[in-house]
Amino acid sequence: MTIAIPAPVQAVFTTFPLQTFPAVPARDTALEAELGRRTFAFGKHASSNDAAPFTLVAAHRPVSVALDGATVQLCSAPAELFVQLCLCHKNALALPREAQEGCAAIPSPHKVLVAARAGAPELLLNGRLVARDELLRGLAARLPGVHRQLSQLLDRDLAPLFAGGYVSPGVVRRATQTLRQFEQLAQGGDSSPYLEMKVASYVLVLLHVVAEGEAADLRECREFVQGECPALVEGAYTVLRRLSGK
């Protein structure tokens, strides 16, 4: 059965015939650019083996730190930076130098991705998201004996500085006392790679993330590290040089 096309409809299609348009590429360039700005690729040491692809999810944008004529990108929260340093050490990778934006067209299989997630740091590995607590427990297990207890002491006395909100004078006092203890330990030379990276994560954040506009308690701890803890500062930069890929 044939159905007649109403004259007004036929007039419309006669005046404005159907056209076929080319396919629209399935790419969101704005999203790609934003991801590029939020992605920081690890490098490789000359002797590094192929490590399994991973993405470290960080809540805070990395901070640029000058090191021996180059610039490295460091996560700007102590727990995130500790994981970043450990990933470099474990997988023979170098610290990121710049955002993925404007880098090589082939994306790196090893990267830091900045995302507003309360549970950061997290690690995307082999299609599985390793949560913060599991990730940090696994790294703590690599610390031998007394060094694990020292790592826990650092977290107990320094982590409250970065929790946000009011910090009491007692918290600042415990933090500086603990930093002084670790300064003495650093002068004695008894350490291990993972403990060195743990200490460096706190020292480097205090030195490079805490700005003049920060709360007085953080500025006090930063000034204490700068003035009273030369061995801790030198040890932190030694860790960076070891992991910078130079």
Automatic annotation (TrEMBL):
Short name of any one Pfam family annotated for the protein: SAM35
Organism: Maudiozyma humilis (Sour dough yeast)
Record-linked InterPro entries: SAM35
Superkingdom of this protein's organism: Eukaryota
Record's protein name: SAM complex subunit
